[in-house]
Amino acid sequence: MEAFKQALKHSGLPPKVLKKSLVLGKILENWEKIVGTTLKDWTKPIELREDTLIIGVAHSYLVQSFTALNLEILKRINALFKKTHPVKRIQIKVYPRLYKEEKKVKRSFNKSEVEKCFKILENLKDPELKEEFLKLFKVYFSQ
Q1: What predicted TM-score, i.e. pTM, was given to this entire model?
Q2: Most CB atoms within 10 A, among 21, 27, 93, 113?
Q3: Which residue, 69, 24, 65, is CA-closest to 45?
Q4: Per residue, what are the HEC states of the chain?
Q5: In this predicted structure, what is the pLDDT of residue 123?
Q6: Mean pLDDT of 66-93
Q7: pLDDT, tens digit (0-9, with 9 covering 90-100), for 126-137
Q8: What span, in angstroms and rounded, lies between the C-alpha atoms of 129 and 120?
């Protein structure tokens, strides 16, 4: 972060843009501390407009939850800055591209494991249960 600050200071940016960039950089650096581990993957500070922080959320249902936390988040953000309180308001916007999909893991099974599972399946007496497990195994072992 220190290298980023130095680069910005020597960039020749107007003071107002420089200040906004430094504030947003500090917020980004501390985002997990501000919103917690659960929300950090679903939210992101997008922009600082004057004294309003624009926060993107991955889903519309997070808007209401996040709005309820506005005051607490403002306190945590402004606690990062010693003398000033650069953020006075928070605005929430939905940004679906913030959603991080889980990566599918390719499973590998050895032949004996698969055969063992199907052998256990053969011993099930309940035909409905057996059929459901058969469907499940076919899907599970085909991946």
Answers
A1: 0.62
A2: 27
A3: 24
A4: CHHHHHHHHCCCCCHHHHHHHHHHHHHHHCHHHHHCHHHHCCEEEEEEECCEEEEEECCCHHHHHHHHCHHHHHHHHHHCCCCCCCCCEEEEEECHHHCCCCCCCCCCCCHHHHHHHHHHHHCCCCHHHHHHHHHHHHHHHHC
A5: 79
A6: 90
A7: 888 777 777 777
A8: 12
